[in-house]
Each structure stands twice: as C-alpha cells, then as structure tokens.
C-alpha cells in the first residue's frame, strides 16, 4: 500500500446501519464519537515549510501541497466513487506542473482514501490524512455518511475542508449541536443542491403525468432518508401544499432484504408515485419484489439508487422510465476552470477511457479539485490554514457543475448551491438505458430533451407542460 492511494480488499461494509433513528438532525453516535478522537488543536495538522521564498518554479526547497480526498469506492455506495480514478488521473496531470501561489510554484500530492461506505471508516481515514499525512486541505464527496464524519474531523482539528454530493440540509443541520439554532462552521464548506430543489424538480416531473397524487415514501434510516422524510424540512410539507398525499410506512435499515411490509402499505393506499432515497442494492431488492407482488406505480422518482447506469441496467426491463434527479451530465452547459473541457467532453472522455456510460459524480468530483485549486492559488499564506479557509470563503467560481459561490452566504455561510434538473431513464442506443433531462423548469439553461413518461406508458395519457 502506498500513501498516494489507499486500497482495501473489503467491499462488504454498510452505510451506517448502526445509525439510530434520532432523526437526520443528529449524527450517528458512532460517527460522532469517531469525529472527536483526534486532538482539537489546529497545530496537529501543521507542517513546517522548507520552501525558498525566492523560488519561481518547482525546486528541491519548495514544500509539497497535500490534498486529501475521501470517497466511497467500495461497499454499497461504491457507485459514487466508480469514476474517481478517471477524474484523479485527469487532475493529477494538471497538477503535475504544480500550483503557483504568490509567485511560488509548489508541487502537489493528492492522497486518496476509501471510506468503504462506512461513516466510522470515513472518520478514521480523515484522521489519518490530518495527523499522519499532514494535508493542507481536505476534499470529500458522496452522501452524508461520508461528508459529515470527514467534515467533523476537519472542523475539530482546524483543517480546511470542501465537500459535495450530499443535499445541504443533512450536511449542515446534521452536524449541528443544536439544529434548532444552527451556527456557521469555521473550517468546512459544501456545495450542492438542497431538498427544496429536488422537491421542486420532482413535482414538475410528476405534474407531466396523470396520477392520483398519492406518493409512497421509501426512506431508509440514514442521513438522507431521515432528511427526505423529515416532516418539517423534508418532502411531506411541500408535497401536501402541492395537493399530494404522502404515505410513509416508516424508516427501514439499510441492507433490508424483505420489503413486503412497505409494498403492502403502498398497495393498500393506492400509491401511484414512488419516491425515496435508498442505496442501490436495497432499491434493486425493493423494485424486484414490487414487480413480483403486483405493485407498479406510474412514476418512480428515486434519489441515490437511480443515479448510476449500472444500477438501472441491473434491473433489466424493470429499469425503463424510472426517474431521478439530474445534477450533472453531458448536456450541462458548463466548462471546467481547470481543463477548459465542456461537460460533454469530460463525460465522453470517461466513456472513451473506460468503455462505460458516463455517471453523474464525475462532474462533482472534478469540481471539488477546481474549487480547491482556485482557493489555494488565492491563499495569502499557504502555511496558515486559516488563510486557506479565508480563500475558500471568498470563492466565486464558474465550474464544470455550474457556479460555486460562497460569497453569497445563503442559505448559510458554509453552503453554495448548484443547479438541479430532473432526468428519466429511457431506452438507449450505445448502452441499455440513457438518462435524459425531462424537467428544466428551475434551470432552463440545462434544456429538457423530452417530457416525462409513465412507467406503464400504454396505461394512460401523458400531459405535456411544453409546447
């Protein structure tokens, strides 16, 4: 094993089934405990500088800038990290010539760690990056079970951290000592969309199909599930305001094999719209069992599990017309500040390199390094972590996922929101299914390619909202 990339053989870890149902506004006890194992002095992550102040290029006296990166590349959340190697190869080639800060060019080392889809493991590897590797800045991606424990380690130890790929509510409120009276964080910053955005997108998609407006909620007992199902900050209140009835049979544990109770509840209530945020293996089990037990809603808009082509392909014929949020893809009209690539070029490059269909986390993994690069280049004193944080706080950057602007301070100072549209999986040409945009109401710069179709297309008319 090298310091450059942490590799693990274990792939069967869980996403935090030990999470107790205290609601998404509290971190899991095990994760919280892990997050305070490290000393809280910022000096623990400091490193003396041996650089020459007269250097204008890479030389033996210039110290190395170290960037830590944590994501799930094994376990049930591995779909989020499956494109990491492709993204890392690209950014490493850019950083091979170093980063110039204040006229001095520093070599860059990216040190990666696999969270193994476990909150405890995420906290532990974050601790290793902080204390053993002496990183200058932490990057972390993919679900609250990864972002939150890593960000907590950084907040406790005075290490700048930039995170993404988790709705901002479970990230921000889920880390508060008192969620009812939230306070800003000093060291940790996050960019992504929020629950208000996905609710708006889903409502627009659902409005394109004739249904009885009865919605079944498939919410696991984890950070995302408790956020989506929260009666005040999640789906229930805005859906009710829009005239929908929510049927929530309660939280289930990740790794559940039998969804008979949930399916029976949905059938009894006459559910015609399914939503939720299960991990991919759980939705595969649920959807297969639903078909076997005669439950076929007209719409299934599922977060997390339906983000990845591999998850939908695995369903075979049952994958047709399933829908999900669309954070990023080849039709996103944005360009990388690092490589000048368009979103389409980055996505196509992945397919050319791997032979696999593009996947949404590619754009946000790349954007994390864009934001880090931009902030580091603007840092007044690279040997002062507080100075790095000040540069992050001043970020207003056009990235491959859209604008990342921490200067606005809304909805909270640590949060920057990115665009979101709605997508549907339709029969593909090169690959079994393709994700196309069917809702662009909130972000018309990302054009819709079609209107939403019901799962059983022959069973009812489609009401289009577009001319």
Summarize the structure in short.
The protein has two domains: 29-193 and 331-416, Response regulator (Rossmann fold); 196-326 and 420-459, Response regulator (Rossmann fold).
Mind explaining what this structure looks like?
The chain is an alpha/beta fold. The protein has 2 domains: 29-193 and 331-416, Response regulator (Rossmann fold), CATH 3.40.50; 196-326 and 420-459, 3-Layer(aba) Sandwich (Rossmann fold), CATH 3.40.50. 30% of the residues lie in helices and 16% in strands. It has 14 helices and 17 strands. It has a 6-stranded parallel beta sheet with strand order 4-1-5-6-7-15, sandwiched between helices. The protein has a 4-stranded parallel beta sheet with strand order 9-8-10-11. Strands 12-16-17 form a 3-stranded antiparallel beta sheet. A hairpin with a 2-residue loop joins strand 2 (99-101) and strand 3. It is globular and about 70 Å long.
Keywords:
467 residues, alpha/beta, Rossmann fold, 2 domains, six-stranded parallel beta sheet, four-stranded parallel beta sheet, 30% helix, 16% strand, disordered C terminus
CATH class membership of the largest domain:
Alpha Beta
Compute the number of helices: 14
End-to-end separation in angstroms reads 57 Å
Under CATH, the topology of the largest domain can be stated as: Rossmann fold
Rg to the nearest angstrom?
22 Å
* CATH architectural designation of the largest domain: 3-Layer(aba) Sandwich
Q: Which stretches are low in confidence, meaning pLDDT under 50 for 5 or more residues running?
A: 1-56, 457-467
Q: Largest beta sheet: what is the strand line-up?
A: 4-1-5-6-7-15
Q: CATH homologous superfamily name of the largest domain?
A: Response regulator
Helix and strand content put the structural class at alpha/beta
The proportion of residues in beta strands is 15-25%
The total tally of domains equals 2
């Amino acid at each position: 094993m090298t310091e450059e990339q942490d590799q693990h053989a274990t792939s069967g870890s869980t996403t935090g089934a030990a999470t107790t149902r205290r609601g998404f506004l509290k971190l899991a006890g095990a994760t919280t405990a892990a997050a305070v194992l490290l000393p809280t002095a910022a000096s623990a992550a400091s490193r003396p500088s041996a650089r020459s102040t007269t250097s204008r290029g890479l030389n033996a006296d210039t110290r190395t800038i170290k960037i830590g990166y944590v994501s799930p590349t094994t376990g049930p959340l591995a779909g989020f990290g499956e494109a990491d190697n492709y993204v890392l190869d690209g950014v490493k080639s850019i950083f091979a010539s170093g980063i110039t800060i204040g006229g001095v060019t520093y070599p860059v080392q990216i040190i990666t760690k696999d969270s193994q889809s476990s909150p405890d493991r995420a906290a532990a590897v974050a601790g290793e990056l902080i204390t053993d590797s002496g990183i200058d800045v932490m990057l972390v991606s993919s679900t609250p079970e990864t972002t939150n424990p890593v960000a907590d380690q950084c907040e406790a130890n005075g290490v700048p951290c930039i995170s993404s790929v988790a709705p901002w509510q479970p990230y921000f409120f889920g880390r508060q000592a008192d969620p009812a009276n939230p306070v800003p964080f000093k060291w940790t910053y996050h960019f992504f969309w929020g629950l208000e955005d996905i609710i708006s997108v889903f409502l627009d998609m659902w409005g394109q199909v004739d249904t009885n407006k009865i919605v079944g909620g498939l919410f696991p007992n984890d950070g995302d599930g408790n956020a989506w199902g929260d009666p005040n900050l999640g789906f229930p209140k805005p859906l009710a305001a829009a005239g929908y009835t929510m049927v929530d049979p309660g939280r289930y544990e990740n790794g559940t094999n039998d969804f008979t109770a949930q399916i029976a509840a949905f059938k009894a209530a006459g559910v015609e719209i399914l939503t939720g945020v299960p991990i991919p293996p759980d939705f595969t089990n649920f959807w297969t069992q639903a078909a076997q037990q005669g439950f076929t809603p007209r719409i299934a808009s599922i977060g997390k599990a339906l983000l990845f082509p591999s998850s939908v392909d695995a369903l075979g014929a049952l994958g047709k017309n399933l829908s999900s949020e669309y954070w990023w893809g080849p039709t996103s009209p944005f360009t990388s500040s690092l490589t000048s690539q368009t979103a389409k070029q980055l996505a196509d490059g992945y397919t050319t390199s791997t032979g696999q269909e593009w996947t949404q986390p590619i754009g946000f993994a790349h954007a994390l390094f864009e934001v880090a690069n931009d902030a580091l280049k603007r840092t007044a004193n690279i040997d002062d972590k507080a100075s790095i944080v000040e540069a992050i706080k001043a970020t207003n950057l056009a990235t491959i996922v859209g604008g990342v602007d921490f200067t606005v301070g809304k909805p909270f100072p640590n949060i920057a929101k990115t665009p979101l549209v709605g997508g549907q999986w339709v029969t593909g040409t090169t690959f079994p299914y393709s994700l196309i945009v069917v809702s662009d109401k909130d972000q018309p710069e990302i054009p819709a390619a079609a209107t939403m179709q019901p799962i059983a297309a022959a069973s009812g008319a489609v009401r289009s909202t577009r001319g």
